[in-house]
Design a protein that fits this description.
disordered C terminus; alpha+beta; Immunoglobulin-like; 8-stranded antiparallel sheet
């Protein structure tokens, strides 16, 4: 039968081991950065009223599997169709107030938000044509040389939807159906709202006299 000193040493060793494991989990273990299944993905024109250059939009939760967390330096999306690949490197983050993504800390509790990925100004005109696309989302972490793949999925644009996307103000939304376990596409259109009268009056003052007629008609 072990004596009291042996039991005390065993208890102390066990407590030390538990403390070391706890310290490693809370302080040293980096864990993995992950992203949940986006609830919605959008391909369409940029802008408050769906005007402008093409962009990719998605809403998802970023989270860490460890308490230490991760610092994201930048994020980007890559869209592939057949042999063609296009990167959307401009990252915009936010819900109500949009800001250019310039770093974000993601801890164990996670960060949920809207992510917008846009093309650089000098990119050739990009069109969302019919076909099967592969969407990949990447994050570049501080101190890492290679980007980390966060999420990837296939999305299909039919010929009918592609024809609608060619029309102004149209975008295609892929809404995740948890019951069917797939994305359900639908085309949405949001025509631009009329410009405020104050802005129209300011533009009218700056335009030549012959253009005032067009401005006054817009105000009506």
């Amino acid at each position: 039968m072990p004596d009291a000193s042996t039991i005390a040493i065993a208890i102390s060793a066990t407590a030390l081991a538990v403390s070391l494991v706890t310290m490693w989990i809370t302080l040293f273990r980096r864990g993995t950065l992950k992203m949940t299944q986006p609830t919605t993905v959008m391909f369409g024109p940029d802008g408050r009223h769906h005007e402008g250059e093409p962009k990719i939009f998605l809403r998802a939760l970023l989270y860490s599997t460890a308490k230490r967390g991760h610092v994201i330096e930048n994020m980007f999306a890559r869209l592939s169709r057949g042999e063609q690949r296009q990167s959307f490197p401009i990252w915009v983050l936010g819900d109500e107030r949009l800001t250019r993504g310039s770093g974000i800390f993601v801890g164990e509790q996670g960060v949920v938000g809207d992510h917008h990925f846009l093309l650089p100004p000098d990119t050739e005109k990009y069109l969302f044509k019919a076909g099967e696309y592969r969407l990949d989302v990447f994050a570049r972490l501080v101190g890492k040389n290679e980007a980390k793949a966060l999420w990837s999925n296939s999305l299909t644009i039919t010929d009918n939807d592609a024809a609608k996307l060619a029309q102004p103000n149209n975008a295609i939304y892929f809404d995740w159906g948890p019951d069917s376990n797939r994305y359900i596409p639908n085309i949405r259109s949001k025509p631009p709202k009329p410009m405020p009268n104050a802005m129209l009056e300011l533009i009218g003052k700056l335009l030549p006299d012959e253009a005032h007629i067009a401005v006054e008609s817009d105000k009506k």
